[in-house]
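User: Modeling request: complex.
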Amino acid sequence: MDVKKIPKFIFLGASLLSVGITLAILGFMVVLAYPIFSQGMFWDMLIQPWSPGQGLFGIGPMIVGTMSIALLAVGVSFPLCCGVACFVGVLHPRGKGKMLKGLVESMTAIPTVIYGFVGIFLLVPLVRGLFSQGSGMCILSAGMMLGVLISPTMILFFSQSFSLVPLGYLNAADALGATTAQKFFYIILPCAWKSMVSGLILSFGRAMGDTLIALMISGNAVGFPGSILDSARTLTAHIGLIIAADFDSIEFKTLFVCGICLYAMTGIGVILVRLLAGKGRG
Amino acid sequence: MQTRSWLWDSGFALFAWGCSLALVGVVFIILGFLVVKGFHTLTPTLIVGDTPFWEALLLKRQVFDGLFPAIVGTLCLILLAMVFALPLGLFTGIFLAEYASFRVKWVFSIVFDILAGIPSIVVGLFGFSVTLFLHHYFFAQLFPCLLISALSLAFLVLPYMIRTTQMALESLPLGVRMTAIGLGATKFQNIIYVLLPASISAIVSGIILSIGRCAEDTAVIMLTGAVATAGIPRSLFSSFEALPFYIYYISSQYADQSELMKGYGACLVLIFICMILFVLAHLIKTKVSQKLMYRS
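Assistant: Request completed. Predicted assembly structure:
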């Protein structure tokens, strides 16, 4: 064998191993959840309620919980992040904006568990006092804290997509006497909305995939939530609470169904972002 | 017309200012809350409990009611995870940037994007179930432990490592890329002696950011072997304590006010560690490495 080829094979081997790990994670979950597929219970499980007493092990409430918390988080942080991204990218690209961007970047270094901790001891009592109902551990608290968690991702993505708008367009608008707001609405927004959508999808994925905040401050009740002041359990929290650990029990298998759902949803998100990026270039 | 555009303009500015102030306010409230509540706990007692400071640090005496075992556990975890993730991530990044054909690169980077998007709890579930599987069928003495946690964490940070290496190599200018080849170097020599040294600052700062992720992640380790009290990890196959898990545990199981205060202290320590790593990564990315590179 040619000696010069050895490094290439080592590098190739490492890459194949990395790809293998990604596929193994999915494969392992599918194998362990296989009995559920083979009995044709998979689709029922996605909508059924969770009541082990009646032999129902559906993860419907968790899917609703995940979706409502993630949607609320994105809904809370989207307008906020738009404003901050405008400040950083359009209004004050230097000076104050740069300082704010530094702060946002350093927010990415704050551990998730810290947000959860502050959520329990600051936000939850606040929500409890404000609405004087229940324990304060509800979709609203979790969604708000999660909104703070995902905002750096969203802001950095948005401000980056603003900065990719060709400078010539902006100069042309300036030369025609456009105000800052006109420049933003007529030039920057039409150019950047596609990558903003990508940022939105990625942040939604982050909100959906987060475990600690949901586990710590959403209350983890297993019923279908009726309002945003109800306690709810997310898919991630359901896995985190590990309710059983023997291979034959159906409770244990539901964990893998949750895992497959999360894997599938984030995978679809990634592929959507890819498609958007590809279209944008072409 | 003039007034209308003026209204729009000032409304726009007002909105941006308002949102920015709100965000800054939220961040300061979060950090301020922790500092106000936990600042007075920041004493040597928080770290080592009642044990004399140096004896604890030199591992002579076991620490029972301090954060010391948790900090040591986190450090062990980071070190081990890096041992696994570093070579794998670097090699894969090099392969993608330098060897892979366009189509292979496209497929592989989608796969790594998906790996980056997988929620950490799913990676933890994978580690947990693989351990359980091995325990049932092959090694009955294997339980969730330090080694399993470190491996799972390595999978978690692998995509970041791959992407920073790949991006760092791909962003090198063509001139740097071609010079050594023109002088007759092989492709491998070019990578080792020219391309990697030239992109080392970006790669190192990526590594430090991955270390930060290892330090903060809780979802993976709580399924793969972190426990509330274990002392300093004795071997790769023992369970261990870790700072983020300790914070999570305290928040749900604290027995009295002094334990809760230790939780605040642990939060501050963890933020401090993560901020140091973050600042380090930034410094390396911007200044330090360039100086080092041009001096040598």
